[in-house]
Amino acid sequence: MKKIVVVLFIATFLFSDSYKEGLGYFKVNNFEKAYESLDEVLFEYIAENEFNFFYGRSALEIGKYNDAIAAFERMLTQDPNHDRARLELARAYYELGLYKQSQIEFERVKAKPSTPQEVREIIDEYLVKMEEEQEKHTLSAIASAGLEHDSNINNGNDNWLGGSANPEVSSSAIALSGVVSSDYRVSDEKSIKTVGGVFLKEYTQKEGKDYIYPFISSGLEFETKEYEIATPISFSTLYYDSELLLYQLSLRGEAKFKQTPEFLKSRSLKAFTVSGEITQKMFNSDNSNSNSRVLSLATSAKTDIKSGFIQYSLGYEFERKEGGHSTDIDKDTLKLGASALLSNLEPIIITPTANIDFARYKDSDVSENKKREDLKIALGVSGIYSLDKKSALVGSVSYKDSNSNLERASYNKLTVGVFYKYFFSNAQIKNWLK
Fold this sequence. Notes:
By secondary structure, the protein is an alpha+beta fold. It is 27% helix and 49% strand. The chain has helices at 2-14, 17-27, 31-40, 42-45, 49-61, 65-78, 83-95, 99-110, 117-133, 262-265, 426-433, and strands at residues 137-150, 171-185, 190-203, 210-223, 227-240, 243-257, 270-284, 289-305, 308-323, 329-345, 348-364, 371-386, 391-404, 411-424.
């Protein structure tokens, strides 16, 4: 790493403007711009190893794997003992799905006595990934246990001047969850992915709620070098104090574009995703039964920053609720969101989030004779501390403020949680199943 920094420093004085510009972008992890600048002077510096390294790394980070392979091969032609170039070449082969070539290059570096232990561990991770990805059927699982405190578990409102029939209830809770994922590869481009699990939450306050939320989702995923398309069907239920409260069925379609559309490149955005979902909810209660149909549309993209990335999202949701005590209700919701992954505090990864939802009901409220409008603002931050490769501690804090022009519908809440997560690998699960 020190050698790379020195090369960057010297290069800013010796090389052309495009080269220096590319190195500047590389230094702040703007690999898209770095690649564009370095590509302008490719044939001028094509025989220089330092140039090929930065050009190859930039190409690798933005998915131009063939350009990366060519750059690292040029380096190895001049210096067959350049272990860093061989590692990056192995990574590029891996990203292209050329596992045999990738394995050969990784093993060459690993076999050298001078290779540091931390590099060997990274190589082992890639080798295990390749072994699992070449299997037709792989399994993984996550188990979680933790404590949570919610300042307002029932979204109550103590400040309503008309007198609240739903007062705020604060409570701690024990939270447990288990999720199992299955990936069955039909072909190189198609796979069937299934996720199932259960979330349990038991509140200590007797007026609180005990939740059990089992779910399963399965669908076909189609992947090429340009995009990924997923079409999962999900079914879930919600139990409250051992009684069925809600069950829902969802059909979702999602497309993720690996090559950034031109209109987003100028804004340094990538990983462009569009999705749509249709959900049928069925509520079951002693007092009322109702159905709800929800149509959701969303899009997202992310941009790289020096310490990680920021992801932005925009969505629209239409819900029609029928039955129950009230007349039919139509609701439109506009959703804005932003989240980030910050890794500059390693081994702790920080993920702040911010979401704004604006909902407008199309029919007037009977009691207050006006159309309801809600503005919900949710802020949160979580930190993940890796204990080892298979377990982590997670801490989270979130605040939600829901303001409505119907005073009784407004509420706010603060939630704090600490969880332990354990990750089960494909090899562990299959050994237990034998």
